[in-house]
Design a protein that fits this description.
This protein is mainly alpha-helical and 73 residues long. The protein has one domain. The protein contains four helices and no strands. The two termini are 22 Å apart.
């Protein structure tokens, strides 16, 4: 049971990490505002409560879909 919880937490955490790294990269490559404001501004802009909610919901959906596929295949 504990192993399953740790695996789920690791997978959800990794999905959240990928979400935030993708947001930060997009902030630096597409917005154009990073040139004047810098890295700290981009990090503060990306780490908002709305983005956290989206990341957690997307990570949980992703985890359950992958688990479903693991059990079916």
């Amino acid at each position: 049971m504990t192993k399953t919880i740790w695996r789920a937490a690791t997978e959800v955490g990794f999905i959240i990490f990928l979400f935030y790294s993708n947001l930060l990269m997009g902030e630096f490559t597409r917005s154009g505002m990073e040139r004047g404001r810098g890295f700290v501004w981009a990090v503060e802009d990306v780490f908002s409560s709305a983005n956290l909610a989206i990341a957690v919901i997307a990570a949980l959906i992703g985890y359950f879909v992958v688990e479903l596929l693991r059990r079916k295949l």
